Amino acid sequence: MAVNARQSAPPPTFLGAGAKTRKKVGSLCSSCSPSFGSEDQAPEFVRGKLLSELSTWGIGGAARLFVEVRNREQLVSSIRHCREHNLKFLALGKGSNCLFDDRGFDGCVILSRINDMHENGCGRYRVGSGYPFNLLGIHTSKQGFGGLEFASGIPGTVGGAVFMNAGADGQETIEVLEAVEFVDTNGQTRELLKKQGELACSYRKSPFQGMPDLGAILSATFQLQPCPLSRDRQRDYLARRKQTQPVNERSAGCVFRNPGKGCQSAGALIEAVGLKGLRIGGAKVSELHANFLINTGGAKASDVLSLISVIKDRVRAESGIQLEQEVRYIPY
């Protein structure tokens, strides 16, 4: 993917399920009746969905409400519904770069399953926000287009990758990103274009992270270039990742951003201060890659937060470098 956590107009958060009570969106509040085109298209809201089931970390309590959307009309109408009823909401992709609170989320979690793809055969792809980013990397490299080979090892969605400006192996999402369509907190669709200078990104940062009226990303358009080595490069990147990262463990990917030029990577800094294998509760610093914190079983958000705090303090004390989190903590 990841977005908004809204109640009395708080700033948005993009990220990327109990006893269950299912209701059509129109019946949640007697005073509203969102339009989805037809009754069969109306998504169902579920009460008490466990967020641990929506997180690659396997951590998180229950959401007050949960809804899965499969097209832009459902997403837009769900956001409008939340706004009209002063209900904070969170748009989610695959939950691969976020840490949910142990208490859950006291609002509505909107899961994007918008996974349509339109391609013109010349390296241009418009892809829904819920499309798996790793599959996009594999698909485009198979077709002989380069630029997203790195994506094949990233377990998120297109929306989350755009929001975080995901990258690896010397490549970044922004390098091939042409346009992003999104819905704001008023339920209006808008678009940012690179050619107009509206998609200025930096390392693991995008304009969407500081956008106060962002509701959720709808789609992204990529322009790739022919590359006869793209498939081989994609396979090499993925093989290397499997050898150096705990891909079979429950994690959220790299927890900290790399400090920058002239500095060791975050993983190397953590390893240098002897924290590989450190464990608090069910959370542990991976012994394969120190920038990964894994859920060894039964880990709580509080365990992960405590581990993050210890790592930051130790690295700062011994190297003078302040690590910055890449993973987003989603409060209750």
From TrEMBL:
First and last residue of the signal peptide: none
An MF annotation (GO) of this entry: UDP-N-acetylmuramate dehydrogenase activity
The keyword Acyltransferase belongs to this UniProt entry's keyword annotation: no
Subcellular location: Cytoplasm
UniProt cofactor(s): FAD
EC number: 1.3.1.98
GO cellular component, one term: cytosol
Catalytic reaction(s) noted: UDP-N-acetyl-alpha-D-muramate + NADP(+) = UDP-N-acetyl-3-O-(1-carboxyvinyl)-alpha-D-glucosamine + NADPH + H(+)
Top enzyme class: oxidoreductase
InterPro entries given in the database record: FAD-bd_PCMH, FAD-bd_PCMH-like_sf, FAD-bd_PCMH_sub1, FAD-bd_PCMH_sub2, MurB, MurB_C, MurB_C_sf, Oxid_FAD_bind_N
Any single biological process term in GO: cell wall organization
Record's keyword annotation contains Nuclease: no
Pfam families named in the record: FAD_binding_4, MurB_C
Residue span(s) of domain FAD-binding PCMH-type: 58-227
Keywords: Cell cycle, Cell division, Cell shape, Cell wall biogenesis/degradation, Cytoplasm, FAD, Flavoprotein, NADP, Oxidoreductase, Peptidoglycan synthesis
Main location: cytoplasm
PROSITE patterns cross-referenced by the UniProt entry: FAD_PCMH
Source domain of life: Eukaryota
Pathway(s): Cell wall biogenesis; peptidoglycan biosynthesis
Primary role: Cell wall formation.
NCBIfam families: murB, PRK13905.1
Protein name, per record: UDP-N-acetylmuramate dehydrogenase
Organism: Selaginella moellendorffii
Taxonomic classification: Eukaryota, Viridiplantae, Streptophyta, Embryophyta, Tracheophyta
